[in-house]
Amino acid sequence: ALGQLNNSIVALNKAVEMDNENLEFLFLAADLQAELKNEDEAKKIFSQILLLDPKNKEAKALLKSLNSPS
């Protein structure tokens, strides 16, 4: 299972590299990083989404939730 997860992460990172303005890929990457508790990486990706789509309410909400103390 861990090997499959790592393969998924590698594939998703390659997809983002190939099309770094694809919001769907970016959301998947940010969600995955957040699930893995890589909050700094998730914040970075959500910020990238907001640079591309400043009015994106979902990205704003998720970034805010990551910035809130637990």
Give the topology:
Layout: H1 2-18, H2 23-35, H3 39-52, H4 57-67
Helix pairs in contact: 1-2, 2-3, 3-4
Q: What do these coordinates show?
A:
- The structure is a single chain.
- 79% of the residues lie in helices and 0% in strands.
- With 70 residues, it is an all-alpha fold.
- The model has no long low-confidence stretch (mean pLDDT 91).
In short:
79% of the residues lie in helices and 0% in strands.
Q: What is the gyration radius calculated from CA atoms? A: 12 Å
The residue fraction in helices comes out at over 70%
- Report how far the terminal alpha carbons are from each other: 28 Å
Q: Structural class, from helix and strand content? A: mainly alpha
Total number of helical segments? 4
Strand content: under 5%
- The number of distinct β-strands equals 0
Question: Overall 3D geometry?
Answer: flat
Report the uncertain regions.
none
The ordered H/E elements are HHHH
Integer average pLDDT: 91
Largest sheet descriptor: none
Keywords:
70 residues, mainly alpha, flat
